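Per reviewer request, we include the raw input and output of the structure prediction for the construct analysed in the revised manuscript.
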Amino acid sequence: MSPTALEVSQQVPEVRPAAKLSTAEFRVGRPEIVGPEKPETPFPIILVGRVQRGFGRGGKDLGCPTANLPDESIIPMSSIANTGVYYGYAQVVTPSGDSTPMHPRDNGVLPMVMSLGWNPFYKNEKLTAEIHIMHEFDKDFYGFEMRAVVLGYIRPELDYTSREALIDDIEFDKQVALNCLERPEYRKYAQDPHFDLRCSVDTQI
């Protein structure tokens, strides 16, 4: 059995397995829907944490803004899952007392794709979990609570020879995620109790 993302992160970088290189053949042969008809172990995986600033490359370089979760909040996933790209639902929650609350449509439960790994194209040295919510937000939400339910695996973490190839795969990942979440047994997780706004991260951590 391959090591989990957390186990790999505990290895020295010199012995960490290198990500495979994405090829044109891989992109051409990708399926538009992946996984079983309902989530299977280890899914669903529940995550919660406050959004922190990352490298700022997702939106600027790739046209895919991402939200980074703190190290401690990704352990429920990194301790049981491999690196790669995943899909599910996520929700951003306005902190109580915030002077500029988000629009209600921005606090909804929304489809997301998530990268767990080192972003080998950018040669990161630290394991990160970056979530892209497929929605146009009216404002930044650094420091806000994010809740996520991870429901399935799309593909392994890959390295790239060009930014354009990486962008192509990201756009395909988004469509795969949307296709997968259309299945009834996945759609129902948009109503998961984890997204109950009456429960605050302040009482969970």
